Amino acid sequence: MGGTGCGRRAAAFVCSLLAVGALRAQGVAEAVRAAEALGATTGVAAMELDGTWRCRHRPDAAFVPASNMKLVTAAAVLHGLGRDYQFHTRFELRAGRLGAIAGGDPNWIADTATAPEVMCRGLVAALQRRGVTAIRGVVLDQGRFTGPGRPPTWPQDQLDTYYCAPTGGFVLQQGTFVLRLCPRGGAAEATLIAPFVRMPIEGTIALSSTAKNAVYGAVDRGDHVHVQGRMWQRADPAEIRIAVRDPAAWFERVLVEAVAAGGVTVRADADAIDAPDLYEYRTPLAASVQRMLEDSSNFDAEQCARVLGAERGGDGSIDGGVATVGRALADLLGGPPRGLVQVDGSGLSRGNSVTPELLVRVLRAVAATPESDLYFGALPLAARTGTLAERFARSPVAGRVRAKTGWIRGASSLSGVLTRRDGSRCAFAILMNYDPAANGLNKQLKELQERIVEALDARGDAGGG
Length: 465
What we know:
About 30% of the residues lie in helices and about 25% in strands. It has three domains: about 1-80 and about 285-455, Beta-lactamase (3-Layer(aba) Sandwich); about 85-150 and about 245-285, D-tyrosyl-trna(Tyr) Deacylase, Chain: A (3-Layer(bba) Sandwich); about 180-240, no CATH class. Helix 3 packs parallel to helix 9.
């Protein structure tokens, strides 16, 4: 009797996923049952790019998506700005003062083609061409990039971490500074390696004779960087990234030092020169979208949402960016994005929610746009790149899945596109929510997500719906 009841429940569970060929439906159902047995409420939706549904389980349920929210943000940003959009920062002279007009450029990152040094060299050259040897100061115009640098729903005890870095009109190094720490003598030697600016470093990181309890860190105090803690004396040199306190202050310091290095002094009696079209610096949107999806950069997701808000909604605040993302997404989908509650661009907040069906519809909609190759090409490739480099390592679908991972406490997700060996493509969304107090659960959930994708690899015959 008990066995018969179990068999009925199993059959009903498979039916709830839509019968898509017995082996595949059973494989998806088993993985979903295993996840829910662990305490993770699970939603799955999968659709062929030709519009045929393959399976759905809790497709309309609201889930905290974690970084799968970046799929929504990237889709809206690309649709709203276009693949060829360029961030642009303008410089002018106003009565002898160097003015910078914000464009929200997220690409000023050391050791890249768009490093801050590149922008500064172009600016200095523009000043030199006009014979400017002195300016009266620097003025930063934030323009439409108003309001706080972080959503209020972010974890307030983690604001110094790189993944909680602030956004704004002028932001270097993704809102962080980078220190290199090297054990030397009686303490760790700390060197600021990015951004390129002279910033005093105070405090001490002592050296420890054992690796146990060796913990160290740094914080931006505004006029200096403070370091503290203990580092193992035999440790290799290490680099740490820490969120800055005020991005604009770092930007202004870099500008002043850069023009001085180029022979342009700052003094009150400089000539009152006007040059409204002194210099403009541009960088590509594509680079930021790549980091947003492949590296799961919270900063790039938030910054791009704010740029979209500034350009298409006239409001580059955090709230303005989120509102404009919603409007761009509605235009992409041809109607309101039902099932979407968005409070940030990155998914770091627990206040976000999406449905599996909505994510699949977004993926399919993007696949039909000119931005398709950029969007899907930026997604991590299973067992190869980004946040999927270490996943699907021995899987038959390795190298054939491009997907966005996601995790915050209580939420684990994986959504993207599977390309089968016959060339057919299937968009899928797997969202799992559980008690945030549960520890060590995500590793098991990631394995079950991979099993679900592997089950979708067999094409089979579609069922109803």
